[in-house]
Amino acid sequence: MKKSALILMISVFGLSYAQQQTKVLKTSFSKEALAQKLEDEEGKNITIQQILDHHKGKVLVIDFWAGWCRDCLKALPKAEELEKNNPNIDFVFLSLERSKEGFDKSLDRFNMKDKDNYWFATGWKNDFNNYIDLNWIPRYMVVDQKSSIAKYYAISPEDPEIQETINRLLK
């Protein structure tokens, strides 16, 4: 009896930390979220707005990840496949590494140097991540040609809605 109760408690407790889709699926970014600063590989500051402006007119997939995240590393081959299958789509990788050193090491270790990478030097809790309800990684978003959110919440690069959204935006 005690063993069953313990297993039940562990199961319930473990489920409370599982990724859960948010109830509100946003279609645009707040002013505060757009002002959020990140760092590029050289350590220069850039805002979310500047990143979106750089990709305006293109469909953009945003991939939230970190080298310490087991789920992210498991998803990496499928994320690379999604990128390879969509050569006309821009991809941006937003890292949640715990340090600049960790960011640099992960880019080298996982062959990410030739990609569009940025790091949240402010950590997980910031205006952008709070606005988009980032509660787990990996996470994927699709942004349309006008910088509006077309697919707000995906936890796997294999989510068919990512490709469906891309296809719909390219019509």
From TrEMBL:
Residues 1-18 form the signal peptide. The keyword Signal applies. It comes from the Bacteria. Keywords: Signal. Residues 27-171 form the Thioredoxin domain. Pfam families: Thioredoxin_8. InterPro entries: Thioredoxin-like_fold, Thioredoxin-like_sf, Thioredoxin_domain, Thioredoxin_ResA/DsbE_sf. PANTHER family: PROTEIN DIPZ, THIOL:DISULFIDE INTERCHANGE PROTEIN DSBE. This is Alkyl hydroperoxide reductase.
